[in-house]
Amino acid sequence: MKLKLSALAILLSAATIAMAQDSLTIRKIYDEALVNGKSYENLRYLCKNIGARLSGSPNAQKAVEWSKKLMESYGFDHVFLQEVMVPHWVRGSKEEAYIIDGKNKIPVPVAALGMSVATPKDGLTADIIEVHSLKQLDTLGEAGIKGKIVFFNRPFDARYIETLRAYGTAGDQRNMGPAAAAKYGAVGVIVRSLTESLDNYPHTGATRYDPTGNNIPAAAISTIAANELSNLLKQKSGSIKFSFKQSSYHLPDTLSYNVVGELIGTENPNKFITVGGHLDSWDLAEGAHDDGTGVMGALEAVRLLKVLGYKPKNTIRVVFFINEENGDKGGLKYAELAAANKEQHIAAIETDLGGFTPRGFGFTGLSSEQLQNLTPWKKLFEPYGSDHLVAGGGGSDIGPLKEKSPGIILIGLSPDSQRYFDVHHSANDVFENVNKRELELGAASMSALIYLIDQHGFN
Amino acid sequence: MKLKLSALAILLSAATIAMAQDSLTIRKIYDEALVNGKSYENLRYLCKNIGARLSGSPNAQKAVEWSKKLMESYGFDHVFLQEVMVPHWVRGSKEEAYIIDGKNKIPVPVAALGMSVATPKDGLTADIIEVHSLKQLDTLGEAGIKGKIVFFNRPFDARYIETLRAYGTAGDQRNMGPAAAAKYGAVGVIVRSLTESLDNYPHTGATRYDPTGNNIPAAAISTIAANELSNLLKQKSGSIKFSFKQSSYHLPDTLSYNVVGELIGTENPNKFITVGGHLDSWDLAEGAHDDGTGVMGALEAVRLLKVLGYKPKNTIRVVFFINEENGDKGGLKYAELAAANKEQHIAAIETDLGGFTPRGFGFTGLSSEQLQNLTPWKKLFEPYGSDHLVAGGGGSDIGPLKEKSPGIILIGLSPDSQRYFDVHHSANDVFENVNKRELELGAASMSALIYLIDQHGFN
Prior knowledge:
2 copies of one chain form a homodimer. With 459 residues, the first copy, chain A, is an alpha/beta fold. Chain A contains 15 helices and 16 strands. Chain A has 2 domains: 27-89 and 252-456, Zn peptidases (Aminopeptidase); 92-247, 3-Layer(bba) Sandwich (Glucose Oxidase, domain 1).
């Protein structure tokens, strides 16, 4: 009995020592991020010297080249590009739109949805009908829809505490609304911007046409204008028309790249822990929160380990995925190459919800027992407020790894979500709306998590 | 044994039912705040239609009158004012300041510290010496300081995760620096703005003179200018002078008011739960986060209970304290009247750290066992992310209640702290820097906590 107790005591104290060591390393990671962090100035460069970088655009190529150089400057073991063909959609001239109330033409701010076709050259004018769901289209049928513009106007449900859930439940209007409306003969679609904030900015984002259906032009309208349009439709049902003009078009697919940097594992060079965000952005602003903070935070997470002299057991990779916004081609390519190269992926962390104060991480692939086993990590994250370790997490860039790398744990960084959709996909997504410390805390959180996974794996 | 188990089962299920009821009520509170919340539009009015409201100013009086009407419009049982004499300090003309580098006069942004005296009418020009601590003054002594301007330039320590701690450790320079420098014959003091962000805004705040000492003029300098000045002093030690001009002055103390609204307790009308923030603000901007969000959040917390038809057991009070920024007279008066009127105070919640996403509450006066007993409340707050219930909390307005109302639990709302000192006491503290949902979540959190305290007290 005595012996057993001693053995237990030794085991316990070994665990305590390991935890104290982890605690010290994590403290160093945060200190370095907060005192000597590079993410904020890197983000400034990406936003102000490169700017918007939609897939296929010259700016996206500039961003690829600059990112590769930046990774090289940090002395990572490998820096390389992964070739991938991406869609090349172009917005064309600035859109115009009007509510037509008899002789009164009220200009309203709209922006073509990503991947949308153009209107006829002189614009499209038609009756407009407001709906709140895709189901409602079935009720209205061709009789109610044919020849009209469909106006999807279901707002965010403010009651969700996490705004991402409100986005999730309102998103079908933008993603599938145009395809669904086209089936009933609609000639165009206007979608209420996917944000809770009342502002004058149209928030764009991709729509998906039915490959066998009719492609009709579709645009986002600002929430303030959406309310105005809705009010007018209530007051003057039947007499309101809508007119919009956009000249968006597709060019042939373009060669582009994921940008990858690696610290080679000292014990398991063919086992990988990936951290990444997407380098491409929408074209309306600087893609600061979406997803400049993601790529610059992910890079910083690995730089922090490197600069602290940490020698990882497994290979740590930072990936700047290309084409998340309108095709997901970069994420698909990364998973395809991982399988082709017989890489073993332990975990992948995605950061694509803005550079706000981190609250924790969501995990996909852990059993509830394994999730329970993260309690010591939760304790380690508590002093940093990033201790909300819950089931469910990932993102569209790392998602394809699930199928291609069985056993992988997919992880999403969970920043505070309240401000994300204020700027998301709009002209408001600029560097000035990023807080330096919030970004740095996110980078440090990811770095600490990579360290813990590399040291301990998932038990 | 069987009987005992059944009794336990009944007790447990009663607890479970109570918790389910609490959970439902709290959900309703959050829904109402997020869907029909009034705090954001009230804040807009306070910021845009009234604006800066330093104690003693006509605007502070406007704010008192409007706040009283606003509370009355919500149908609270009582709305009343508490008379209190407050200091009346006036900034005077916009300050001017220059780094003098030989013939080169470099203009820099400064703002007089609150309660500071003026410089001579034509300004004050002298040699300037940089120090990093009050202790350093003792080392330099009169020989090093007499006749000079002392420049306190110790920056925020970025390593603190909670920025309030960085503020706490840097704050002595502003609070006590001028009094300490005056002892050694300094003729003026310039203090690095108490913020981590590098910006061009001086961040003001009160300084405290030694009543028996010499009052020398003191001003805050922007962090960017502080760095510039420091660099020049390093390069050209001995040849740099500094010049500043400010015309601040004191008028006689002025009659002002705390504004109080009450829902009378159905069981214990003489037992009180207070929630409040301060109505006064600095004069450089709109006092949006400091403390417009506090008063409007506190008011909303009580409005939510009222509008949901909740009948409190104890009296619930919202208090808009006056004069937190440069005197604390409102908080002192409130505690004095509480004692004089023999009120029994159960708890007071202060919100004065900005209207950012709430993370939880800090409690002063609870034993560690009592704090442990809050675990069920922690669970109730988890879905709202406001579940960080820790020891230590309060604020300077409710602080005086501790002595005057023995047994009271003092509570501080803990919002995310990363952005607070970006705006704090500067021209940047405007309505546009407040996020609607963050403010609403804070109000709902306080409302839910008041409900729980009113229902269950502290065990």
